[in-house]
TrEMBL record:
Coiled coil: none annotated. Signal peptide: none annotated. This is Pyridoxamine 5'-phosphate oxidase-like FMN-binding protein. The lineage of its organism: Bacteria, Pseudomonadati, Pseudomonadota, Alphaproteobacteria, Hyphomicrobiales. InterPro entries: Pyridox_Oxase_FMN-dep (IPR024029), Pyridox_Oxase_N (IPR011576), Split_barrel_FMN-bd (IPR012349). It comes from Aureimonas glaciei. It comes from the Bacteria.
Length: 204
């Protein structure tokens, strides 16, 4: 056997999960999950189109930008972005989402799986006003699985260890990459400058 095709085959390769890895799963938010959300400035959102195309998109803001509306519901504001709307289009056809919340310097992550919808309710938008600007919409997620994930991936990767950080100049700038990938008429330097200007003008 080289390619695993069934759950039974998979379970012959891996050991059974530890009991605590199964028991830690909750359907809603406890005090620790709420505290994690209050400190997290970053979340990765996994979604899937009805036909099966998967996507993972990042969202970041000030710590605590994701609000717990109650023990089974969280709300994530959507700020200006690239307007591809991959996640939102997926949700309209398949509301299932998987979220991973990070806190800089902390090796554990918070995982939330559930179903999502998109809201433009004025009262809800007002809740997330920042710098006198409202989010474009708010993603509401009804939780089905909530649990803290262990630190092994972060320990192996050394993600928060400054000694692992690359010299930014050792990798092409975003403008250089765009120039190569889309054959833009602007120079790489012009693209980088325009991106920096847009970041300042449209962050919120």
């Amino acid at each position: 056997m080289s390619t695993i095709k069934t759950v039974e085959e998979l379970r012959t390769v891996y050991k059974a999960p530890l009991e605590r890895a199964v028991l830690k799963e909750m359907v809603g938010l406890d005090k620790h999950a709420r505290a994690f959300l209050q400190r997290s400035p970053f979340v990765l959102i996994g979604s899937c189109a009805p036909g099966g195309r998967a996507d993972v998109s990042p969202k970041g803001d000030q710590p605590g930008f994701v609000h717990a509306l109650d023990d089974r519901t969280i709300a994530i504001p959507d700020r200006p972005g690239n307007n591809r709307l991959d996640t939102f289009e997926n949700i309209l056809g398949n509301p299932t989402v998987g979220l991973i919340f990070l806190i800089p310097g902390m090796n554990e992550t918070l995982r939330i799986n559930g179903t999502a919808e998109i809201s433009t309710d004025p009262a809800l938008l007002a809740r997330f006003e920042h710098q006198r600007k409202l989010p474009i919409s708010v993603m509401i997620v009804r939780t089905e699985e909530v649990y803290l994930h262990c630190a092994k991936a972060f320990l192996r990767s050394g993600l928060w260890d400054p000694s692992t950080f690359i010299e930014r100049g050792s990798f092409p700038s975003f403008g250089t990459i765009l120039k190569d990938q889309i054959a833009a008429e602007e120079t790489a330097e012009e693209l980088d400058r325009h991106l920096a200007e847009r970041y300042k003008a449209t962050l919120y």
